[in-house]
Write a structure and sequence with these properties.
- The protein has helices at 4-19, 24-31, 33-36, 45-50, 58-63, 66-75, 94-105; strands spanning 77-78, 84-86.
- The protein is built from seven helices and two strands, in the order H-H-H-H-H-H-E-E-H.
- It has one domain: Cytochrome c-like domain (Cytochrome Bc1 Complex, Chain D, domain 2), CATH 1.10.760.10.
- A hairpin with a 5-residue loop joins strand 1 (77-78) and strand 2 (84-86).
- The protein is mainly alpha-helical.
């Protein structure tokens, strides 16, 4: 019985740990920074090529709703001609995406 208790505790803890959102900075750094930059300014080679927005600019931040940012991250983003500018992030939960959007909001300069 004593050997069984740690196994039961571990089995019960697994779903709780899996349900926690991943680190939004880590996701951003891995998936977004190559275009949007570590500071959100979009001042990278790829960001300039693809026309990435400067998320440190308050006007840009105010023009993008959380819902639109969430959709772009989840589904990807195309220009008006249908050219893919941003592929969707795969393998992340909705909670992770919401956390990334909240993280991006921190780039806004006052």
């Amino acid at each position: 019985m004593k050997k069984l208790i740690p196994l039961i505790v571990a089995a019960l803890a697994m779903p709780v740990l899996a349900a926690q959102a991943a680190d939004p900075k880590a996701i951003y750094d891995k998936e977004c920074a190559k275009c949007h930059g570590a500071d959100g300014k979009g001042d990278t080679k790829m960001g300039k090529k693809m026309g990435a927005k400067d998320y440190s600019d308050p006007k840009v931040q105010d023009s993008v709703t959380d819902e639109a940012a969430f959709k772009a991250i989840k589904e990807g983003f195309k220009d008006k001609d249908g050219k893919v500018l941003m592929k969707p992030i795969e393998g992340v939960s909705d909670a992770d995406i919401k956390a990334v959007v909240a993280y991006m909001r921190k780039f806004k300069k006052k």
